[in-house]
User: Which sequence fits this backbone?
């Protein structure tokens, strides 16, 4: 028996994705704050945090999406869903581009400033592969969260 | 510039048509129940095709189901 919710399975799935994105990101980046980037990407402690975050995301996905599937009925997308998806994709895209531009700008400015200022620059503003990877990872997560939030806003408030 | 709104009387028409449920209307016009819910709450302006499909289900003209309004007036706006 399906419980008739005021939200569609699609909207519930977006809530689920947003929840999993946020808990995984919080778990990973809080672990990263403890471990640090000193050992680079090959640091075993960092690899362990990343592995645990992946396992957390998989387990959370199985639980959340199984529950949504059990509680909601499947419905094909209609014009409102497509319109909301298109608007949310646009917002997510702009956030992604802005974030990538900020990350690239940071790398470019650091590369230009390093020969001049050298050791006067903060240690955390380097251009190590580990920092670049995590910067881009954070940008991807923020873009994904922005996209999901925009979709939910449109489902709940606007459309 | 005032924000245009499209209001409708879908809820009243559903009850006049044998208390048709939102789900039944959604099936008849090929959208989700949430879209009908959003339409009735005036939170969603339908495409022209969907508006015609809804009007067709109730056997009414488009103008009898949907009304174009501006936020500074409740009177239907008349296009030139």
Assistant:
């Amino acid at each position: 028996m399906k419980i008739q919710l005021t939200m569609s399975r699609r909207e519930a799935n977006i809530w689920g994705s947003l929840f999993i994105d946020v808990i995984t990101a919080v778990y990973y980046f809080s672990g990263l704050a403890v471990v640090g980037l000193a050992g680079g990407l090959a640091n075993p402690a960092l690899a362990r945090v990343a592995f645990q975050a992946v396992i957390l995301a998989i387990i959370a996905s199985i639980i959340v999406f199984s529950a949504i599937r059990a509680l909601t009925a499947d419905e094909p997308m209609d014009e409102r869903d497509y319109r909301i998806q298109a608007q949310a994709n646009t917002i997510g895209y702009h956030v992604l581009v802005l974030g990538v531009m900020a990350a690239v700008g940071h790398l470019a400015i650091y590369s230009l400033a390093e020969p001049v200022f050298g050791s006067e620059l903060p240690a955390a503003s380097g251009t190590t592969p580990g920092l670049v990877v995590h910067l881009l990872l954070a940008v991807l997560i923020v873009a994904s969260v922005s996209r999901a939030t925009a979709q939910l806003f449109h489902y709940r408030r606007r459309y | 510039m005032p924000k245009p709104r499209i209001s409708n009387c879908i809820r009243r028409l559903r009850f006049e048509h044998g208390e048709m449920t939102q789900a039944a209307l959604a099936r008849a016009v090929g959208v989700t129940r949430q879209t009908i819910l959003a339409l009735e709450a005036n939170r969603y302006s339908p495409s022209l095709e969907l508006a015609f499909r809804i009007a067709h289900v109730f056997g009414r003209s488009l103008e009898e189901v949907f009304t174009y309004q501006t936020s500074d007036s409740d009177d239907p706006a008349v296009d030139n």
Remarks:
- The mean pLDDT of chain A is 86.
